[in-house]
Amino acid sequence: MEHVVIVGAGVMGTACAFRLLEQGYRVTLLEKALPGAESSAAAAGILGAQSEVSGGGAFLDLCVASRGMFRDFVGRLQDVSGVHCGYEESGVLEVAMDPAEGRLAAGRAEWMLERDLRVEILDRDEARRLEPALSERIIGANFYPDDHQVEPVALSRALAAAVARLGGQFRSGVQVTGLHVQGERVVGVASRDEVIHGDHVIIAGGAWSSMIGGLPPLRTQVKPMSGQILQVEMRPPAFRHVVYGYKGYIVPRADGRVVMGSTLEDRGFDKAVTTEGLQRITQMALEMVPLLKQARMTDAWAGLRPATGDGHPLLGQGPWPGLYFATGHYRNGILMTPITAEVTTQFIMGQVPPWDLTPFTPIHLMKEGHE
């Protein structure tokens, strides 16, 4: 039985483990802290293949494909783990607050309709009939019925439970310092105390991925981008659609919790929650949904998005045999969880995934006409 070592036990690492265990591989996950406690737990959980993607191309195609996998993926996961993931087919309302945003929304709707993606273009009254909690100041909205949501903490717990039930091994408190290479093949990883051997190694360390020593030259590096989130509560729940604006988003949970975010800050591994950040988030949310002024604050946190220089994840085979990458998903990590697990598993099994992964390859591709 081939052994796969996965560096990182967030949603990417555990989803890859889940899929590989289903295919009969032996899997060990190495995590410096608690599985799923970093970026995965800090996300809002919008499955925004349309609301969060700015244009067409291979990245949009991959996001749409992953969104389409989510229902079956969550169903399998809940069956194995017994943990409900909070998957809701809520739809997303992309709200325009002024004419400039209205023009942006109209342009976005146009290119999506050209690609046969479902969009409902709503004027103010239509949007407020669909979601009465919206401000009277909006000028219109795009409604994306196929953009849904999932609860990231529940998803992380379900993945960890499913991996454990299928026989995957977790090793927490392991700080991976580098790769273990024999000849030209990666055959494991090194920590401060030992070498952990494996037939295949997957780098799924999120914002910490580029800190592993001895990595080969890659297409881009991964760096942390901090984002603050505020959670409030309303009882009973006052609205049900995800509201997405050009300054932030509001995600209502079925039990009355509301997640609002997020800032975008380049400040290294600093996860501080600041008064300035919370003020920006609160102002954004009240502009779109004024009744949130009645909500009670329950929590606030910051997460570290794994950002890359070109905005695309590192996904697929590395430049050395035995090495694979599933990291750098930036703002779309929860959305891309199922397809990342599927693609990575197919590569390890020696199969060719049916999507265009050229923009996401971890290695530098030679340009045409150059050697």
Summarize the structure.
By secondary structure, the protein is α/β, with parallel strands linked by helices. The protein contains eight helices and 19 strands.
List the helices and strands and how they pair.
Blueprint: E1 3-7, H1 11-22, E2 26-31, H2 39-42, E3 46-47, H3 58-81, E4 92-96, H4 99-114, E5 120-123, H5 124-130, E6 140-144, E7 148-149, H6 152-165, E8 169-172, E9 176-182, E10 185-191, E11 195-197, E12 200-203, E13 222-233, E14 242-244, E15 249-252, E16 257-261, H7 275-288, E17 296-308, E18 314-317, E19 323-327, H8 337-348
Parallel strand pairs: 1-2, 1-12, 2-8, 4-14, 12-19
Antiparallel strand pairs: 3-7, 4-6, 5-6, 9-10, 10-11, 13-16, 13-17, 14-15, 15-16, 18-19
Organism: Magnetococcus marinus (strain ATCC BAA-1437 / JCM 17883 / MC-1)
Keywords: Oxidoreductase, Thiamine biosynthesis
Enzyme class: oxidoreductase
Structure overview:
Keywords: Oxidoreductase, Thiamine biosynthesis. This is Glycine oxidase. One of its GO terms (biological process) is thiamine biosynthetic process. By secondary structure, the chain is an alpha/beta fold. The chain folds into 2 domains: 3-82 and 152-221 and 309-360, FAD/NAD(P)-binding domain (3-Layer(bba) Sandwich), CATH 3.50.50; 92-145 and 223-308, 2-Layer Sandwich (D-Amino Acid Oxidase, Chain A, domain 2), CATH 3.30.9. It contains 8 helices and 19 strands. The protein has helices at 11-22, 39-42, 58-81, 99-114, 124-130, 152-165, 275-288, 337-348, and strands at residues 3-7, 26-31, 46-47, 92-96, 120-123, 140-144, 148-149, 169-172, 176-182, 185-191, 195-197, 200-203, 222-233, 242-244, 249-252, 257-261, 296-308, 314-317, 323-327. The strands form 4 sheets. The protein has an 8-stranded mixed sheet with strand order 5-6-4-14-15-16-13-17. The protein has a 6-stranded mixed sheet with strand order 8-2-1-12-19-18, covered by helices on one side. Strand 14 (242-244) and strand 15 (249-252) form a beta hairpin. Helix 3 (58-81) crosses helix 8 (337-348). The protein is globular and about 65 Å long.
